[in-house]
Amino acid sequence: MSKKISVEHIKELRSKTGAGMMDCKKALEASEGKIDIAIENLRKKGLATADKKSNRIAAEGLIESYIHTGSRIGVLVELNCETDFVARQIEFNKLAKNIAMQLAACQSVQYVSVDDIPNNIIIMEKRIETEKEDLLSKPNDIKEKIIGARIKKRLKELTLMDQPFIRNPEISIEELLKQHISLLGENIKIRRFERFLLGEGLQSKSDNFSQEVSKMIYNK
């Protein structure tokens, strides 16, 4: 006899995954009410669905803005989808706001994905790592492995898609995007963004905006 699934459990799973109510109910029934297993199964299903949609043209959407408290940092981000209908959905608008806030908090991020990083930047980062003193005495094969791992980590630090989502660090921005692709049924892409810092390029007091934004988020 299958375990009876409560509405509260279904709502909890939906809030954690963004999946539809019926999908959540079926996942919980299949996992006998074990929410961790249900989440894992839904993510596998959701990511597969998202991957199938990733090549579809996304030319609609919106441009979202975020101005941090005190007006010292601002972000503009263009988030694309396939239809104007999805662009008007609450979930899509909320996603755009969360991404804009993420960009305000993660000031080391300079590119949407690793594919957007220019080759000259990758070459420069590799040269910096190669010349570090702690590698000079290492054998070449060991040195190459260490450099490769460090470069991979550094490039992830520069890209939005690889960042842990500030509202749920257990998932990345890429996973968040794929969850919404599955939820809304359309391809969604972060096309571009621009970050503005008050007094950028001028000599001024340095403030830790990342901590300010994160503090504001978690205190809500």
Automatic annotation (TrEMBL):
Domain of life, per lineage: Eukaryota
InterPro entries linked: EF-Ts_dimer_sf, Transl_elong_EFTs/EF1B, Transl_elong_EFTs/EF1B_dimer, Transl_elong_Ts_CS, UBA-like_sf
CDD domains assigned to the protein according to its UniProt record, in alphabetical order: UBA_EF-Ts (cd14275)
GO molecular function: translation elongation factor activity
Pfam family, one: EF_TS
Subcellular localization, as worded in the UniProt entry: Cytoplasm; Mitochondrion
Keywords: Cytoplasm, Elongation factor, Mitochondrion, Plastid, Protein biosynthesis
Domain annotation Translation elongation factor EFTs/EF1B dimerisation: ranges: 55-200
Cellular component GO terms, alphabetical: mitochondrion
Its job: Associates with the EF-Tu.GDP complex and induces the exchange of GDP to GTP. It remains bound to the aminoacyl-tRNA.EF-Tu.GTP complex up to the GTP hydrolysis stage on the ribosome.
Classification via NCBIfam families: tsf
Entry similarity comment: Belongs to the EF-Ts family.
Protein name: Elongation factor Ts, mitochondrial
Organism from which the protein derives: Erythroglossum lusitanicum
Lineage: Eukaryota, Rhodophyta, Florideophyceae, Rhodymeniophycidae, Ceramiales
Gene name of the encoded protein: tsf
